[in-house]
Design the sequence.
């Protein structure tokens, strides 16, 4: 390699190290399921709004995605999700949703919700254990993060059952 190539490589390494944005890292579930924390104000941001904004090829800008992400992380949401998969994890359940359908015909939606739900009673446990792919459930959860424009992590989360 020539001296110019090495200089360019060094410049790229320095610029990459100066990037002030934190890397997207996977979010792990919180251990404590503090139900009173989930009784606070529920955000008006819908799962559809998140799906439309983060869809690949959507007309939304990086600025709009960044602003929505900042508003969403740390908030409490209540979303109706279509089940894709459910896994049991240490007395809790990891519920992964189907991608939310979007309106834009040119965009590809990859975003799913992953909710770490601890049943509040035996009725919750029964609902979770009987749920199959494509069933719909409503969860309320604390948004921990958005990973790679494809996963919104809710932890802790609870089921919301309507009478």
Sequence:
């Amino acid at each position: 390699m020539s001296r110019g190539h090495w200089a360019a490589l060094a410049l790229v390494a320095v610029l990459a190290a100066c990037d002030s944005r934190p890397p997207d890292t996977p979010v792990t579930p919180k251990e404590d399921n503090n139900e009173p924390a989930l009784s606070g104000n529920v955000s008006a941001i819908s799962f559809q709004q998140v799906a439309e904004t983060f869809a690949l090829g959507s007309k939304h800008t990086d600025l709009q995605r960044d602003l929505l992400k900042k508003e969403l992380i740390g908030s409490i949401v209540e979303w109706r999700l279509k089940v894709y998969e459910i896994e049991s994890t240490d007395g809790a359940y990891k519920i992964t949703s189907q991608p939310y359908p979007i309106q834009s015909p040119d965009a590809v939606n990859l975003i799913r919700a992953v909710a770490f739900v601890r049943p509040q009673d035996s009725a919750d446990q029964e609902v979770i254990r009987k749920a199959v792919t494509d069933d719909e459930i409503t969860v309320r959860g604390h948004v921990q993060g958005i990973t790679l424009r494809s996963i919104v992590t809710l932890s802790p989360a609870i089921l919301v059952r309507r009478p």
User: Anything to note?
Assistant: The two ends are 71 Å apart (CA to CA). The CA atoms of residues 26 and 40 lie 25 Å apart.
